[in-house]
Predict the 3D structure of the following.
Amino acid sequence: MTLDTVMQTLKPVDDGLRERAARVIPGGMYGHLNVTLLPASYPQFYRSGNGARLTDVDGNQYIDFMCGFGPMISGYKNPVVEAAAAAQLAEGDALGGPTPRMVELAELLVDTVGPADWAMFGKNGTDATSLAVTIARAATGKRKLLKGRSAYHGANAWFNPNPLGSTPEDRANIIFFDFNDIASLEAAAAEAGDDLAGIIVSPFKHDGPVDDQRLAEVDFARAVRALADRNDAVLIMDEVRTGFRLVTGSAWEPLGVAPDLIAYSKAIANGWALSAVVGIDALAQAASDIYATGSFWYSGVAMAAGIANIGLLRETDTPAHMDHVGTLLRTGLQAQAEENGFEVVQSGPAAMPYLRFVDDPGHAAALAFTGAAAARGVLLHPVHNWFLSTAHTEQDIADALDRTAEAFAEARSVLG
Ligand SMILES: Cc1ncc(COP(=O)(O)O)c(C=O)c1O
C-alpha cells in the first residue's frame, strides 16, 4: 500500500466524526477550533500527543507548532507533570474543598512571580481576566477599564470581539487605546475621567490576523504604569497567552514594570485546566471581598500538574530555549520564503512567532502555505501566532523545515 492509499483509507475517521458532530454540536464545532475555516488538510479531531508531536484520529502525525493554542509548554504527556497529576488523581480531584495543592501552588507562584503576594485560581483564561477586572473595580470603587483596541482578553460579555449576544451596556465601561501609543492611552484615560478602575494590557500586541505582532516599547510600558498610578487605577497584565513563555515570572520584569494583577492560564499546568490571578498585597482585601467561585476551581489534579510544571519551568532558562528553537524556525522559514519569491514579515517574540505574507488578499498565500505544511505533517496556523515549547528540539525544527521547504514550493506553484 502506498502512503497515499493509507491516508485515504484512514481519512474517513475524521470525516465520520465531523458528520456526527454536525448533528449534535452547534456548527459542527464552535469558536476558533472549527477547522472548516482552515485548509482541508487540517484535522478536526486528535487522538494523542507526545512531546512536540500530535497524532490525529486517522493516525497522521504532526510536528505541532500550535501547542493547543498555548497550553502545551513542557511537551504533551510530559512524564513529570503527568506523574504529579496521576498521584493527585489517585487521591481525588474535586473533593469537598481544596487540597493542600492549592496552598502549595499559591506559594510557588508567589515565589516565582516578582510582583505576586497572593494567588487565586480558576479554570480558563477568561475566568482569570474577569476576576482581575472585578477585583480592580471592587478595590477602586470605579467603573472604567482601558483596553487595547482589538486585544483579546476572553469570551465574556465585556471582552468578546463578537458582540452578538451581549448588550451595549455590557461594554459601556470599556475605553480603547492603541498598543505602544502613549497619546492614545492618555486620551482614553482622559475619557475615563475620575472613574478609571484599571488598565488591562498584554505584554506584547498579539491580536490581529492582518496586523503584525508588536513588542512593548519600554516608554509605553512605563507610561501605562505611571498612568495607572496617577489615576489610582489597577494595572492588570493579561499573561494568559504569554505566561512563562517569555519570562519565568512577569513578562515586563525586563522593562522594569510591575503590574498589580496578572492573569495566567493556558500553559501554567501544561494542558490541565487551570488559571490563576496573582496580585499585590494592596489588592488582597478586594480579592477576598468579591464573590469568586466555580464548581471546579478547587480541584486538585490541575493544581498538582501546575506545581510540577512550574517546577520544571524554573529548573532551567526555558524562555531561552523557546527563543532559540523559535529563532531557528524563523530563520529557516525566512530563507525558504525568499527562495520561493514570497515577501513575508515575521513578528513578535521567537517563542510565539507570527508569519504574515505581504500583499495577501484573503490570506490566500497564508492558507496555501499552512495547508501544504499540514498535509506534510507540520501544524502551523495561517492567521494566529504559533507557539514553541521546551519539548521542541533542534531536530524537530530541522524536520519541520524539510517539510515547509516543500510547502512553500507547493504554495508558489498553486498561486503562480
Ligand atoms: C491574551 C488572552 N487572554 C485571555 C484569553 C482567554 O482564555 P480562555 O480561552 O482560556 O478563556 C486568551 C485565549 O486565547 C488569550 O489569548
Q: What stands out?
A: The longest strand covers residues 196-201.
